[in-house]
Specification:
This protein is α/β, with parallel strands linked by helices. The chain contains 18 helices and 15 strands. The chain is 39% helix and 14% strand. The structure holds ligand F0G.
């Protein structure tokens, strides 16, 4: 079944839709540049098999005045219309839009907070440090911003089944949006390598969930074959509609910063869809005149899943160097990232960096973000760990403004958090290469294991007194007064 950008389905059923602009987008191959109005189910170029991106001449039209866009986006924040309540569709002038508002599947995604990070600011020496917390989305990760757009187009095209390969968050998000949109969902996940928390979301939202005896890369390969054989709509980030929705992270961020671009945006890298989407948004916002200067977009990976780092260092970004991925940050346990070429382009276009961090550095950074009262999942914490390295290298200066993109909620991986605090995180998985003594020196001050006590007032008071004597005051105490 071809996925047409202007499908005929339901066209006759719809009345006038004043709130949506007319769809004028097409698909452009990132390799050979060929443009098409419709795509095949594998979302690959029919000429050269490379990935596609969505392009729309109206995004460059002089009729899109930056000032008008800014004021109508701001105005929509006080509207109660379903499209305006979504932190994605509020920015619909820069998105591919469906034919009718009735196709839109939304859970009021986006609208995520931008937090200051006083503790991490002191640790890194970067005075203006923020976290854009995408873990505050409806299913707890940034995937929702892309899923609302892609599932809308699946519904418009009349699909009954949607499918994805996932390290967990995509499947949770896809299953939720499929359920909201009245579609069935098929999830392919690597057996034993995703958190129960994410898997349980997919189950509750009603997905047909298959745990395959392979890794994420194996699941994705299989999915690509499946969509050529069966009428299922692919919702991985190879689907360019996903990336269009994920662009809104950057648009909303700039709005929150009153359109003053930060110097750096730092994002975790797995399959590399998100970094590509953020970079695309930055370039488009610059072209339209919404921002006058580009932030540097940097990508951070786990050392054990560092395909992009190696691709840039060893092959100058010209060919992908795949790796056998291994990391406790299971969301980014990916060795053969699909969107590597898109990511290379946006890192180079914005002058960003690409770094890798160790397992211990990830665990430490995650606990530090937790100590801010914010928290995130392990994959998100690579951003803070990476920032420390980029500051040491002089790439990020202490007087620059830095935004870390926290991609997933703390509650996404409770096993990691519990094992961290109990001190047995790396017991069975010696993947980090840091000596135990050094690991303990770095991590012990951040560990807060639960204490089992008799249920007496005395026992609790004694524990409180011991903590009062031995623990330092909360590092943020100063800034609270
Ligand atoms: N952070 C989290 C929490 C993720 O779930 C992912 C990817 C990433 C970062 C990396 O983003 O792939 O766009 O570079 N998770 C996917 C999934 C692969 O299946 O949930 P990316």
């Amino acid at each position: 079944m071809p996925l047409s950008a202007t499908s005929d389905r339901d066209r006759d059923k719809q009345g006038p839709q004043p709130s949506l602009p007319k769809a004028t987008f097409s698909f452009r191959c990132i390799g050979c540049g060929s443009i098409s109005a419709a795509v095949a189910q594998d979302f690959r170029c029919s000429q050269c098999n490379n990935l596609l991106e969505i392009t729309d001449p109206s995004w460059k039209s002089p009729s899109l005045s930056a000032a008008t866009l800014k004021s109508s986006w701001r105005e929509r924040r006080s509207s109660n219309a379903a499209l305006d309540l979504s932190g994605v569709w509020r920015f619909r002038e820069l998105l591919p839009v469906p034919e009718s508002e009735q196709h839109v599947v939304t859970l009021r995604e986006g609208n995520t907070p931008l937090y200051e990070l006083p503790l991490s600011s002191r640790i890194t020496g970067v005075s203006r440090l923020y976290a854009k917390h995408q873990g505050m989305n409806p299913t707890g990760s940034f995937k929702d911003t892309g899923m609302t757009v892609a599932s809308t187009f699946a519904r418009q095209a009349g699909y009954q089944w949607v499918a994805c390969a996932s390290t967990g968050n995509t499947s949770a998000s896809m299953a939720a949006y499929a359920a909201r949109g009245g579609m069935r969902s098929l999830v392919l996940v690597p057996e034993g390598k995703i958190s129960w928390s994410k898997l349980s979301q997919a189950l509750d939202y009603g997905a047909l969930t298959c745990q395959l005896r392979t890794d994420f890369d194996g699941c994705l390969r299989l999915l690509q074959e499946l969509v050529r054989r069966a009428p299922v709509y692919q919702l991985n980030s190879i689907n360019p509609f996903r990336l269009e929705g994920q662009k809104t992270l950057a648009i909303e961020l700039l709005e929150q910063l009153d359109w003053q671009p930060p110097d750096h945006i730092i994002v975790p890298g797995g399959n590399l869809g998100n970094s590509s989407a953020i970079g695309k948004a930055l370039l488009e916002m610059r072209d339209i005149g919404l921002i006058l200067r580009l932030p540097k977009l940097s990508v951070v990976q786990a050392e054990g899943a560092n395909a992009l780092v190696r691709t840039l260092r060893e092959a100058e970004g010209k060919r992908l160097i795949s790796v056998q991925a291994e990391t406790r940050a299971t969301a980014i346990r990916i060795g053969n990232p699909a969107s590597w070429e898109k990511a290379v382009k946006v890192i180079q276009a914005t002058g960003g960096a690409c770094e890798q961090v160790s397992e211990v550095e990830i665990a430490q950074a995650k606990a530090e973000i937790g100590a801010e009262g914010i928290g995130c999942e392990p994959a998100s914490a690579v951003t803070l760990a990476g920032l420390k390295k980029l500051v040491r290298q002089g790439f990020v200066k202490p007087d620059e403004t830095v935004v870390l993109v926290l991609t997933g909620n703390l509650l996404k991986d409770p096993d990691f958090t519990m094992e961290f605090h109990r001190g047995d995180l790396f017991q069975d998985t010696p993947v980090h290469g840091t000596p135990r003594e050094r690991e303990d020196n770095l991590l012990n001050p951040l560990r807060h294991p639960p204490i089992v006590l008799d249920a007496t007032l005395n026992a609790v008071i004694q524990t409180l007194e011991r903590a009062e004597k031995s623990d330092p005051p909360h590092p943020n105490a100063e800034s609270n007064t």
